[in-house]
């Protein structure tokens, strides 16, 4: 398979866990230090070799589109005042990277949001990055960049990849948990990226029912066939099209692998985790300015 160069970032959610803060400001634009959360997610995608990013949003999220656009008036004012370096830092997207936007239309779940990107993605294989999840960009070894490793494994092994990390027992019920293939043995210590087959996922199980301690992080590398499975997926309880249902179909037809994550992740859509992330990112930025 060819290397993935397209990515989908769903940004249509209302951020209900962050209300009332997210009522006026999209949760994806809430700051981690002096940059919004989605800035790091897009940087992560670009660093992994992604050249075309599709933002799936809705009418009330135009501020996200504006963030990645060029503000000609602001650029001119900064340069008139001799602040060329600051102006350059605002126009940071590489010239060979394209960001497109498309609207989801109806709030029918994550699977529907991914499917909404199909007219732009076309026949390409693609990655999905959930903007709620921000991976630590300060300590990850470039040789073991999680998304880049996933994309390389996809190209080499021909199986869709889903990033997972080992979570504490008390957090198991918060996540989708991987059910490992019976032929896979997993070591508890993770000091390198590893990919291996997965038999399925259990959504937010109790600790007693959890098939492992490996939780889905929010990074995926999919073959284009996932679109067909999403299109055939029936809406579940709540009227939403679940991405996990399409993944189950992909597992049965093609096989899917999980990739173990290095470093830390932060849930920027949860207030407690977001505040921890804000402090961490701000401190690293200040250290970098010294």
Overall description:
The protein has 290 residues and is α/β, with parallel strands linked by helices. The protein has a single domain, classed as Spore Coat Polysaccharide Biosynthesis Protein SpsA, Chain A (Alpha-Beta Complex), CATH 3.90.550. The protein contains ten helices and 13 strands. The protein has helices at 37-47, 62-67, 72-80, 84-90, 110-116, 118-121, 146-157, 226-232, 243-253, 271-289; strands at 6-10, 31-32, 35-36, 52-57, 98-103, 126-129, 133-135, 160-166, 176-180, 195-203, 214-222, 256-260, 265-267. It has a nine-stranded mixed β-sheet with strand order 5-4-1-6-11-8-12-10-9, with helices on both faces. It has a two-stranded antiparallel sheet with strand order 2-3. The chain has a two-stranded antiparallel ribbon with strand order 7-13. A hairpin with a 2-residue loop joins strand 2 (31-32) and strand 3. Helix 8 (226-232) packs across helix 9 (243-253). The longest helix is centred in the last third of the chain and has 19 residues, at 271-289. It is globular, with a radius of gyration of 19 Å.
Please specify the SSE layout and strand pairing.
Blueprint: E1 6-10, E2 31-32, E3 35-36, H1 37-47, E4 52-57, H2 62-67, H3 72-80, H4 84-90, E5 98-103, H5 110-116, H6 118-121, E6 126-129, E7 133-135, H7 146-157, E8 160-166, E9 176-180, E10 195-203, E11 214-222, H8 226-232, H9 243-253, E12 256-260, E13 265-267, H10 271-289
Parallel strand pairs: 1-4, 1-6, 4-5, 8-12
Antiparallel strand pairs: 2-3, 6-11, 7-13, 8-11, 9-10, 10-12
Helix pairs in contact: 3-4, 5-9, 8-9
């Amino acid at each position: 398979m060819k290397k993935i160069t397209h990515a989908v970032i769903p940004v249509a959610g209302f951020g209900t866990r962050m209300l009332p803060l997210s009522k006026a400001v999209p949760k994806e634009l809430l700051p981690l230090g002096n940059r919004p959360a989605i800035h790091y997610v897009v940087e992560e995608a670009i660093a992994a070799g992604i050249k075309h990013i599709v933002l799936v949003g809705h009418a009330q999220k135009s501020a996200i589109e504006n963030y990645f656009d060029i503000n000609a008036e602001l650029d001119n004012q900064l340069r008139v005042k001799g602040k060329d370096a600051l102006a350059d830092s605002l126009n940071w997207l590489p010239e060979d990277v394209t960001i497109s936007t498309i609207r989801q239309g109806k709030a029918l779940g994550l699977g529907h949001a991914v499917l909404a990107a199909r007219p732009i993605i076309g026949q390409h294989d693609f990655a999905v990055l959930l903007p709620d999840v921000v991976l630590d960009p300060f300590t990850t070894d470039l040789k073991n960049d999680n998304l880049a490793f996933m994309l390389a494994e996809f190209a080499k092994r021909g199986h869709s990849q889903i990033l997972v990390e080992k979570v504490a027992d008390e957090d198991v019920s918060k996540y989708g948990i991987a059910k490992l293939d019976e032929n896979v043995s997993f070591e508890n210590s993770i000091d390198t990226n590893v990919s291996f087959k997965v038999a399925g996922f259990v959504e937010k199980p109790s600790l007693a029912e959890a098939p492992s301690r490996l939780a889905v992080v929010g990074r995926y590398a999919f073959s284009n066939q996932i679109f067909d499975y999403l299109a055939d997926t029936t809406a579940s309880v709540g009227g939403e099209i679940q991405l996990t249902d399409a993944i189950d179909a992909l597992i049965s037809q093609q096989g899917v692998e999980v990739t173990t994550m290095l470093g830390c992740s932060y849930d920027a859509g949860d207030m407690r985790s977001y505040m921890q992330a804000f402090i961490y990112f701000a401190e690293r930025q200040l250290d970098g300015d010294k």
